[in-house]
């Protein structure tokens, strides 16, 4: 029997920070056999990434790694000098990180990035390295490798970029491919393609270690799943066993989160809040929005789905009055909202709110939560009741955005949005940056706000899963046009347009066998 | 890419025109008649007055005078210093080269030293930088002179006859630049080394030094280039003191003399030249940016 590639027993990783010590990983044990696909699943902060990175000695600055056994490629890695680690990196293990836009050096061509691995791990000549880089690009199915190799990461689409990143991780012919959230920054259809590529690597005999917050993403690929929470391994087992009957309540919660849950509403749609007719927006000679019409009624949640570049964010900007339409009209609460000076829009502004994908950049980093929410409240009203409504206690009042978790931040963003009692909230990818388990909580919160206040929501997302769970009606956008619309039930159960069907097929799902 | 270059060159021409026009306005606004202003402290004879009126077309309409001034300036003809009895271009031309030599040498020395500090002594950079920045250049100059010229006799005390004469002044001016630049570089390196691409690079088995020089350095260069171009502009203006300390010829000396003796044609030329230097530096900086960061090449 061949020895395992990785054998870890009682792994503890501690970060000694200037003012405190953080135990990121506590007593984790696992093995990775050759040819296997193992997944570590958990929320951000669970220690899953740092566990994986410690296998190549990259746990991070200030990290102290202790273990009863830490065997990598049959060697005791506890006594490794920097040189020993360098030999393993790229050669024994290749690392694929989340977002290739920043995980590949933005100032170097992707060809140079791939060839760099060969520079370190082989004695091949320059021209041989270039040829090998082209072959690798071809191997991960990047079309026109010659042209792509000479391009920079920002010139490639998200999917091609991620493929190039995978090619660079494969270049040293590693025995183990570590993929840390390899699809999290991608649209569902692109995610499906990258997962297919990883499955192909697996069938070619590569050993994979996948890290993800989303059980659904890894469930098709992984033989075994390790579930981590707060630095501990709470459960592990074959994917099949975990999905059919998890022991730990946390695992069951993750499974529930990944399966999704439809939130029905008893609220009847009221009068029209916002209406856009025949919207068209042209930049230069490119029409990014073409003949889009949408009506949103009181108490209604309208989903707007499509891939990046489909024009959905531009539609949001048009509705919000940030961008003037080239033609067409927007009306809000019965009044003209487009083609009028901002002065005319201003009295209506409080009635129309916005929630962005990344609240960290939507807040002033030097403002406390108290000040952020108070600014949006009518004069004299207290901040505490609004925070209570979004499930936050008084302990966050004097914290700064950076000191909050992603879920807490998005709750503050929601508190700020509901504070002026708007009739419509436009949410642009409000849960895309969050862990699946936190996504569920935020979706519950949004559904509750609609239920209680009758606030209408325009919910923009590339993730059909979350739209299905929340929206009453759905509009599907492709290339600036609405290609299909209808009730959630109709669109998701009997999609008419081919594009909708493709989007639906790409949604990762759990096959939970009872 | 080509349009981006053309746009920057066009903006440069615009700045030069504005500088020339501002200089011309200053001439008109000078007390007394324009002829008085041009003569300055020089000899005042009817012959010279006639010569000035003829050269500056002062008997023609104001618009023609102005356009003629621009036309001549565009051709490098900056008039005549009646005080020195020589064409302004000759006065400045002979002094420009030593100053540029000094400025370029100081900038190159500063950059190289900053790179050495930032790459090989990253932890010490902030201390070294602070010391270098807070020491006045003339003090550095005097100390260097007394040690290496007077005591050891390795370098000439003054003048600009050999390369050796350039060494001490260049070091004097380059050290403070190296101090600031090293700090900017170090900050950029620290930030770049925390980026995900640095993790990817380490995961390829690169040495930390290679991650630094092959990846992070280019990212750190962006702010450093801005810093360097700014200090190069200051260098040109700051040579006065150093030229005094090391007894070198140069633009600084010429400017001081021209201002003291109200030699307005020379002063005007210095103003236009300073603008030209800044335009060139800024254009080069912008182009360097395009060269370093491909993301900026989209127009």
From TrEMBL, chain A:
CDD domains recorded: ABC_NikE_OppD_transporters
A single GO molecular function term of this UniProt record: ATP binding
SUPFAM superfamilies (UniProt xref): P-loop containing nucleoside triphosphate hydrolases
Domain ABC transporter: 6-255, 274-504
InterPro entries: AAA+_ATPase, ABC_transp_ATP-bind, ABC_transporter-like_ATP-bd, ABC_transporter-like_CS, Oligopep_ABC_C, P-loop_NTPase
Homology family: Belongs to the ABC transporter superfamily.
Name of this protein: ABC transporter ATP-binding protein
Organism: Actinoplanes cyaneus
Automatic annotation (TrEMBL), chain B:
CDD domains named among the record's database cross-references: TM_PBP2 (cd06261)
Listed name of the protein: ABC transporter permease
PANTHER family assigned: DIPEPTIDE TRANSPORT SYSTEM PERMEASE PROTEIN DPPB-RELATED
Keyword Cell membrane assigned: yes
Short name of one Pfam family: BPD_transp_1
Keyword terms, alphabetized: Cell membrane, Membrane, Transmembrane, Transmembrane helix, Transport
Signal peptide from the UniProt entry: none
Domain ABC transmembrane type-1: 92-285
Key word Heme present: no
GO cellular component terms given for this protein: plasma membrane
UniProt subcellular location: Cell membrane
Membrane protein topology class: Multi-pass membrane protein
Protein species of origin: Actinoplanes cyaneus
Classification via PROSITE patterns: ABC_TM1
One biological process term in Gene Ontology: transmembrane transport
TM region(s), chain numbering: 102-120, 127-157, 163-185, 221-246, 266-292
Lineage: Bacteria, Bacillati, Actinomycetota, Actinomycetes, Micromonosporales
Family recorded in the similarity comment: Belongs to the binding-protein-dependent transport system permease family.
